[in-house]
């Protein structure tokens, strides 16, 4: 039995559109344990990115309960009515690694220093950062800046940042969407290898059916569309 890392019940989110509120997610339930993976699928605009943002506290739900790594967030509770922002920030710093479709690197830092900064914020060993870049095939580019490397190389550096923090949960939003097929396969291999090696949980938002098929569970938002 895997340790439960993620539990979501009755999650809902609406966005304002002029004078109306447009429902994006409604009644989302999911449970994920350590070492398990979930693919979140659905057409563009179905709420894949919104769900991942809710699961790391970058957006706050209108209803529902989220439990992440033993921390429960419930908008009905007085302390969580404004999102529990300090607790979410601590989780993102130490327990939740987020991989965006476009690599989120500090432009004024080298690739290696980006990875070192992320490891330091998580309280992890910075001496392993070069090894992560080596493992991802860009060790020779460690001293280059983000604008001096390709998009695929930046994405690998972003993965190295997440891997170096040793998260309990990785949220990856279309992590291979902007990559060529060969690079995408290599990036996906590293994500699943880390999940296997470290026992972290992995949630992927993806359009890629082959990538989704590698996950233990699948959540198709087309089948959970809000009324």
Walkthrough of the structure:
With 227 residues, the protein is an alpha/beta fold. The longest helix is centred in the C-terminal third of the chain and has 18 residues. The model has no long low-confidence stretch (mean pLDDT 88). The strands form two sheets. A five-stranded parallel β-sheet has the order 6-7-8-3-9, with helices on both faces. The protein is built from seven helices and nine strands, in the order E-E-E-H-E-E-H-E-H-H-H-E-H-E-H-E.
Number of helical stretches of at least 4 residues: 7
Strand-residue fraction? 25-35%
State the share of residues found in helices, binned by percent: 25-40%
The gyration radius over C-alpha positions equals 17 Å
Separation of the first and last Cα atoms: 35 Å
Strand order of the main beta sheet, please? 6-7-8-3-9
Structural class: alpha/beta
Major beta-sheet overview: 5 strands, parallel
Unreliable spans: none
Q: How many beta-strand elements?
A: 9
The ordered H/E elements are: EEEHEEHEHHHEHEHE
Tell me, briefly, the overall form: globular
Annotation keywords:
227 residues, alpha/beta, 5-stranded parallel beta sheet, 4-stranded antiparallel beta sheet, 7 helices, 32% helix, 27% strand, globular
Summarize the structure.
The chain has 227 residues and is of the alpha/beta class.
Helix and strand topology:
Elements: E1 4-17, E2 20-33, E3 37-41, H1 48-55, E4 63-68, E5 71-74, H2 85-94, E6 96-99, H3 111-121, H4 129-135, H5 151-164, E7 169-173, H6 181-198, E8 201-205, H7 209-213, E9 217-220
Parallel strand pairs: 3-8, 3-9, 6-7, 7-8
Antiparallel strand pairs: 1-2, 1-4, 4-5
């Amino acid at each position: 039995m895997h340790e439960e890392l993620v539990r979501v019940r009755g999650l809902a989110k609406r966005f304002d559109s002029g004078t109306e509120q447009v429902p994006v997610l409604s009644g989302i339930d999911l449970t994920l344990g350590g070492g398990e993976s979930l693919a979140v699928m659905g057409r563009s605009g179905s709420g894949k990115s919104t769900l991942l943002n809710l699961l790391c506290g970058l957006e706050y739900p209108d209803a529902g309960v989220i439990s992440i790594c033993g921390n429960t967030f419930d908008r009905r509770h007085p302390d969580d009515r404004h999102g529990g922002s300090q607790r979410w920030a601590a989780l993102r710093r130490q327990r939740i690694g987020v991989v965006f479709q476009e690599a989120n690197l500090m432009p004024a830092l080298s690739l290696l220093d980006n990875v070192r900064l992320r490891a330091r914020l998580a309280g992890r060993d910075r001496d392993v950062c070069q090894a992560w870049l080596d493992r991802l095939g860009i060790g020779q580019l460690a001293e280059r800046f983000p604008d001096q490397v390709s998009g695929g190389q930046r994405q690998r550096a972003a993965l190295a940042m997440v891997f170096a923090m040793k998260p309990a949960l990785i949220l990856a939003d279309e992590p291979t969407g902007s990559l060529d097929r060969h690079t995408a396969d290599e990036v996906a291999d590293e994500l699943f290898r880390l999940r296997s090696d470290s026992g972290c949980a992995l949630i992927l938002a993806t359009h890629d059916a082959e990538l989704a098929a590698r996950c233990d569970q699948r959540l198709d938002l087309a089948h959970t569309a809000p009324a």
